[in-house]
């Protein structure tokens, strides 16, 4: 192994889960679950990444038991007959030496960006909005909210029962949980809304607390968050570290063990006005403010620079150098890799062994295959 990348291959333990290395497969919707049921296709796809050396696999978003929780027909359910399929997935991933958690999800009022498909029931969201200027679907009632919190808790309980090692709640990218966080989509004046981000976090906090009660103390809970939304890539929920802390600390208190901080580029500093252009990224700030472990993500392994970095002159800063340096200074604990792992299922092993021959750069045409 190139000495410089040893940090990536250090084991990591959180509660009942021990990972052989710091590399996480980012959750990526693939849309190949026929009738919404996971099965052999998914078991083969994920176990191939475990064989390829991924430490922790986070599955594609898989939806909780609410009538309009998904927005495409190939998105897998995380309830009903699909759970048997997910059991096969965990069995095969474990046999291949990997760990795995499902990303449990509700799309809120986001319809598919790639197809004209809608669920039988109307979309639901905090205030019946997709964006401040785009109404869509119904406003959730108290009963809808209570049922949704219970659906997340049930999904997490089922995750544990199906043999998963942890669970991730999708609280990012402008979907349901994030629609509660975001003032543009949460206009409620009851206890689920309010002028502060801390008030608008009540829904997420209740989801996390209900999950914690359902899975017990030792089962790791991950919450994925993002500043950016699909509705507005420039959106920011927390514009100061103070605001970030007041958002995330109550969620850590509710039971989050790991914050998965979604950025499009892991090297983007979150508050450069405070610590400069090489300052902490979102995962760095989240770790510093909450004391919880964090996962970073964003454009790892996508450039030729990254792929060739180990054999290059290391005096030049490259993508990989920046990543390793951030991990060495303990800015965050784990790094998620998305598109590079679609294209190269054995990406971690190749990085470990310095076997870069034949590594391919991601192309959108790779999304047509599910293997
Ligand atoms: C095809 C595709 C599907 C995705 N689906 C999800 C998803 O279901 N849930 C989620 O949180 N992020 C999703 N993402 C975002 C990824 O998890 C990841 O954050 C993003 O791709 C950046 O990482 P990368 O640059 O390593 O690809 C998706 C990304 C891609 C490319």
Write down the overall mean pLDDT.
94
CATH architecture label? Alpha-Beta Barrel
Q: Compute the number of strand runs.
A: 14
Poorly predicted ranges (pLDDT <50, ≥5 residues)? Answer: 307-318
Total count of domains: 1
Task: Report how far apart the termini are.
Answer: 27 Å
Q: Please list the strands of the largest sheet in the order they lie side by side.
A: 3-4-5-10-11-12-13-14
The number of helical segments is: 13
Q: What fraction of residues sit in β-strands?
A: 15-25%
Q: Can you identify the CATH superfamily?
A: Aldolase class I
How much helical structure, as a percent, in the residues? 25-40%
Instruction: Return the CATH topology.
Output: TIM Barrel
Overview of this structure, please?
The protein is α/β, with parallel strands linked by helices. It has one domain: TIM Barrel. Helix content is 33%, strand content 15%. The protein contains 13 helices and 14 strands. It has helices at 40-51, 82-95, 142-161, 176-181, 197-200, 202-215, 241-254, 272-275, 282-290, 304-308, 319-328, 339-343, 347-353; strands spanning 12-14, 17-19, 23-25, 56-63, 99-105, 124-125, 129-131, 134-135, 138-139, 167-170, 221-226, 258-262, 293-297, 334-337. Mean pLDDT is 94; it is low at 307-318. The site of flavin mononucleotide has 22 residues, from strand 4 and helix 12. Flavin mononucleotide (FMN) binds next to strand 4 and helix 12.
């Amino acid at each position: 192994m190139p000495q410089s990348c040893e940090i990536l291959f250090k084991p990591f333990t959180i509660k009942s889960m021990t990972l052989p290395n710091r590399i996480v497969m980012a959750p990526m919707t693939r849309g190949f679950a026929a009738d919404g049921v996971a099965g052999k296709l998914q078991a083969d796809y994920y176990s191939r990444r475990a064989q390829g050396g991924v430490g922790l696999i986070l599955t594609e978003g898989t939806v909780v038991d609410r009538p309009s929780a998904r927005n495409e027909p190939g998105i897998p359910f995380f309830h009903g007959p699909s759970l048997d399929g997910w059991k096969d997935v965990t069995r095969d991933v474990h046999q291949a030496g990997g760990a795995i958690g499902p990303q449990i999800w509700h799309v809120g009022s986001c319809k598919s960006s790639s197809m004209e498909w809608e669920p039988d029931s109307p979309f639901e969201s905090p205030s019946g909005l997709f964006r401040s200027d785009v109404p869509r679907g119904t406003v959730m009632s108290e009963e809808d909210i209570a049922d949704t919190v219970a659906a997340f808790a049930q999904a997490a309980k089922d995750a544990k029962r199906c043999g998963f090692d942890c669970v991730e709640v999708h609280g990012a990218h402008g979907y349901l949980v994030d629609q509660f966080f975001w003032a543009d989509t949460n206009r409620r004046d009851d206890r689920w809304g309010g002028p502060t981000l801390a008030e608008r976090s009540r829904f997420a906090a209740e989801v996390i607390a209900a999950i914690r009660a359902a899975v017990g103390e030792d089962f790791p809970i991950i919450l994925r968050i993002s500043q950016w939304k699909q509705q507005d890539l420039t959106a920011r929920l927390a514009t100061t570290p103070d605001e970030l802390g007041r958002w995330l600390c109550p969620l850590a208190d509710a039971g989050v063990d790991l914050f998965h901080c979604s950025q499009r580029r892991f090297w983007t500093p979150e508050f450069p006005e405070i610590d400069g252009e090489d300052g902490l990224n979102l995962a760095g700030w989240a770790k510093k403010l909450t004391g919880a472990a964090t996962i970073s993500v964003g454009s790892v392994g996508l450039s030729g620079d990254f792929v060739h970095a180990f054999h290059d002159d290391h005096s030049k800063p490259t993508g990989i150098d920046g990543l390793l340096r951030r991990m060495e200074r303990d800015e965050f604990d784990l790094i998620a890799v998305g598109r590079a792992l679609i294209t190269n299922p054995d990406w971690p092993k190749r990085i470990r062994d310095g076997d870069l021959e034949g590594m391919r750069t991601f192309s959108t045409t790779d999304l047509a295959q599910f293997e």
